[in-house]
Input
Amino acid sequence: MEREKFFVGVHAMVIKEGKILLGKRKNCFGEGNYGLPGGHLERNENLEEAMKRELLEETGLICRSALFSNIVNYPGRDKHYLIIGFVIENFEGEPILTEPDKCEGWEWFDLKDLPKNILETHKPQIEAHLKKVNYLEKIKNCEV
Output
């Protein structure tokens, strides 16, 4: 019996002065929605290093230190994800648009006034962080 594959994702919740960094996605899954910097864990890669790599590739930011925040088990419609979230408050640089084919731009949003159109796989990660929960199962129609 062949086991179904699942994917491991890493997200960077970059926080500065009570605001979180989100990018508006384009030409990819979730187009038009806001999302966190992040991506897939590569084979034999350390989780934190994967998050730092994705953060640098997508925003140009250099993570100086990261704190584990949470794990979200997200069995979605097409793919099953286990997503690890890190909080970054100590970083170097300003966000730049490094992948204009995938993102319209990076914006800072107040944690108490987030946009409604956050990617469905990223919304639970932010919700878990705000509720200080380290583990979260996918929540349908979760509100942050």
Observations:
- The beta strands are 7-16, 19-25, 34-35, 38-40, 62-75, 80-92, 103-110, 135-137.
- The chain has one domain: 7-137.
